[in-house]
Input
Amino acid sequence: MADHKINRVALVGTGAVGSSYAFALMNQGVADELIMIDLNEDKAKGDVMDLNHGKVFAPSPAHIHFGSYEDCAEADIVVLCAGANQKPGETRLDLVEKNLNIFHTIVKDVMASGFDGIFLVATNPVDILTYATQRYSGLPKERVIGSGTILDTARFRFLLGDYFNVAPHNVHAYIIGEHGDSELPVYSCADVGGIPVLDLINRQEQYQKEDLDKIFTDVRDAAYKVINSKGSTYYGIAMGLVRITRAILHNENSILTVSALLDGEYDENNVYTGVPAVINRRGVRDILELNLTQEEQEHFKKSTKVIKDTLAPHFTEVKR
Output
């Protein structure tokens, strides 16, 4: 692993998500050094200049500079935000072929530097590309993490908080599975201030179980609405990436819904998907197995099958 006296992050891809991540990372004072890498050197250098001009307002004076893949050698985390973006009318899975090709080159170049830290993948389809990153890099599974359903879970908590008129921080609930159309809400484990959501629904007349279906639909389809409105999503996922970065660099042992490689958990193997996991300086310390209902288990299995079916044409070791 890299020298931990300085928290170094290398960012590959300075598009809307990458630059938003850099902005949030600087404003939260999470890293000591940020290296920005992009094929479009002018864009990346412009971002570096712009961010440095605001450094006087940041909580800590992070060293932000333009770099190359060789600079990844001493990075603790390499964050991958490069690749083709989802366009209006496209699903995340539509991006598979082009982004697999892009990632094969990027990961090879990062590893050639001698990098021995943690990969954090944000590019869609994130479960597919996180799997590819682990295979291309050869790093241990705990050190290759995808953003998974961290944003879906944040949307879920926000909408549940709005529905019950409480702060989202006091809502504990997860979206698991594919970061995509087959994801699922785990209502059986959701609570507001320790009170199960399903109990609240049953106790009080103003709440209806049917409303939960609309809340989940709004979560699942949120990205499509944002993309149709402004072209792409980037603020929410950027802040989610910073949250994962903080958990790693600060050795927090925080539970976050990331894309992690299942190895027997949830009766699944050899598939990256969104699940609650304990995140610390070494990456994924543990995967939490939620006590799913029969219906939730079946939904989760269908979701992982979507991922496996997408992977299978590209990776022969994947069983559908």
Observations:
- Residues 8-146 form a domain with the Rossmann fold fold (CATH 3.40.50.720).
- The mean pLDDT is 94.
- The first strand starts at residue 8 and ends at 12.
